[in-house]
Design a protein that fits this description.
Length: about 550
């Protein structure tokens, strides 16, 4: 029998994107940190984020304007206190990134001075230019800069290619109180389950867009943190609000490749297959309307015309301007035989961002003592019914700093957890039919796309919930009898998140922001967040 492996540190951070890296770096001067990454360290949504990070840097812009734009995009469901807190702390969070070595694009400040300033772009829903960026690969610049600091830090122990399976809590072990004590994790390198013991655990696992057939997210975005927190007894909120990015490249060889909002911010038009624009007919902001409006408009045009896609055209801008500002996209399109400086690019909407998640306070603390959730996995109240462009990385940074401050204040008040039981797999065997996982995986993502996508109805949601419950039964039986694997763990989490999305969607009897139900096309008079609470554990 293999010897059980147990890791121990003060803080376990699950997830290695902007939120997880920032939290780990802020805590590592004060405590030992274990950082868990499901794939290679950089394989998360942060690395692929193109557009930038919203923050008030322009003299003519104000924090109040950033707050107002966020509230408008959130369609009446943002928590104004949280929005104000985030916008007010944005500048300090960005300065920390700059001090850490992140190189945002600059420009000359007027013709009579050599002084430079940060180049700010504008995206849909913003009333000012306030997006700091590194060309069209901002996330990559942030990710690589921070992870280099992570790898150099002696107090941070990185575990790459590890899946978190479940949180270990005092309640589950029959101990007094209800506190997180660590997690069981699956080492994908040698295919065995290990234990991580920690005073505090932070979920920085990103969103759950992989629950849909078409997504701009990397493969790791399987809702792991949301599902684990739910199973541990935490509330979740607003899971019905799934943001579909309007412009994902439509090409068989690049189904996850995003075309940043900044293209429209710099003047790109959306076109029907016949070359005519349609956004001016839908909204006075045209291509700069919030993402929910643009995605629904594209969805409507595609269905009305029976078209496979629409087109995004910036070819009316000078070629050198396009290549300078969008080098990554330009190069990728060239590799696929398209020249965006000369022709429109085919696009479709794709699942992009989970606006709901695990409920937290302003410090990132969840319902479970010692458990924090930061970034896309969390519901803070910032995004409401629709996330404003470039507020996502900002939320990661601001709330990672807030969580770090809270954890530091509690570090010496919390004792190290006692002995934890090793993972028991004495009653399971190796899987004999992996095809079951593959089939269920495909079925789940397909019915979520068809029934719980951009436009929904009561009948579609009821059908989706029935299928979801059947899949849950099959997957739980499979999980109980066979040893874990990456696909099984992700599928188990995704089907749980799918149920939460459907249940939230069924509770909202209106159409607001990213949730559009044909049976309830109007706005409710008194909107509230949709909050789901797990059944009380024995």
């Amino acid at each position: 029998m293999k010897q059980a492996i147990e890791h121990q540190s003060d803080i376990l951070v699950i997830g290695s994107g902007a939120a997880g890296l920032t939290l780990a770096l802020h805590l590592a001067e004060h405590a030992s940190v274990t950082l868990l990454s499901k794939g290679p360290l950089n394989e998360g949504s942060t690395y692929y984020a193109q557009g930038g990070i919203a923050s008030v840097f322009d003299e003519e812009d104000t924090i109040e304007s950033h707050v107002a734009d966020t509230l408008i995009a959130g369609a009446g469901l943002c928590d104004e206190t949280v929005v104000t807190y985030t916008a007010s702390n944005a500048r300090a969070a960005m300065q920390w990134l700059i001090d850490s070595g992140v190189a945002f694009d600059t420009e000359e400040n007027g013709s009579n001075t050599r002084e430079t300033r940060y180049h700010l772009t504008r995206e849909g829903g913003h009333s000012h230019r306030r997006i700091l960026h590194a060309a069209d690969a901002t996330g990559k610049e942030v990710q690589l800069t921070l992870q280099q600091r992570i790898l150099e830090h002696p107090n941070i122990h990185v575990l790459e290619r590890y899946n978190a399976i479940d949180l270990i809590t005092s309640r589950k072990l029959g101990r007094l109180g209800n506190r997180v004590l660590g997690a069981y994790v699956w080492n994908r390198n040698n295919e065995r389950v290990e234990t991580v013991k920690a005073k505090f655990v932070a979920l920085a696992t990103g969103g759950s867009s992989k629950v849909y057939q078409y997504t701009s997210n990397p493969d790791v975005a399987s809702g792991d943190g949301i599902a684990m927190a739910w199973r541990a007894g935490c509330r979740v909120a607003n899971m019905e609000f799934n943001q579909f990015h309007p412009t994902c490249l439509y090409h068989s060889e690049a189904r996850n490749f995003l075309l940043t909002e900044a293209l429209r911010g710099e003047g790109a038009y959306l076109l029907r297959p016949d070359g005519s624009r349609f956004m001016p007919e839908i909204d006075e902001r045209a291509e700069l309307a919030p993402r929910d409006i643009v995605a629904r408009a594209i969805d409507y045009e595609m269905k009305r015309l029976g078209a496979d896609c629409v087109y995004l055209d910036i070819s009316h801008k000078p070629a050198d301007f396009i290549i300078k500002h969008f080098p990554t996209i330009h190069q990728r399109c060239l590799e696929l035989g398209m020249d965006m400086t000369k022709e429109p690019i085919p696009v479709v909407p794709a699942a992009h961002y989970t606006c709901g998640g695990v409920m937290t306070d302003l410090h990132g603390q969840t319902d479970l003592n010692g458990l924090y959730a930061i970034g896309e996995v969390a519901y803070t109240g910032l995004h409401g019914a629709n996330r404003l462009a470039s507020n996502s990385l900002l939320e990661c940074l601001v709330f990672a700093r807030a969580a770090a401050e809270d954890i530091r204040s509690l570090l010496h008040k919390v004792p190290a957890p006692g002995a934890l039981p090793a993972w028991d797999e004495s009653q399971v065997t190796n899987s004999d039919e992996e095809v079951v996982i593959a089939h269920n995986w495909h079925e789940l993502r397909l019915f979520m796309w068809d029934y719980v996508g951009i436009v929904r109805s009561d009948k579609r949601l009821a059908r989706a919930l029935r299928r979801c419950h059947l899949l849950q039964q099959e997957i739980q039986e499979y999980y109980s009898n066979f040893r874990v694997s990456n696909n099984l763990l992700e599928l188990r989490n995704l089907v749980q998140v799918a149920e939460l999305i459907i249940r939230c969607a069924m509770e909202r009897k209106e159409s607001r922001g990213l949730h559009y139900n044909l049976d309830y096309p109007n706005l409710a008079d008194t909107p509230k967040p949709t909050i789901l609470e797990p059944a009380k554990h024995a």
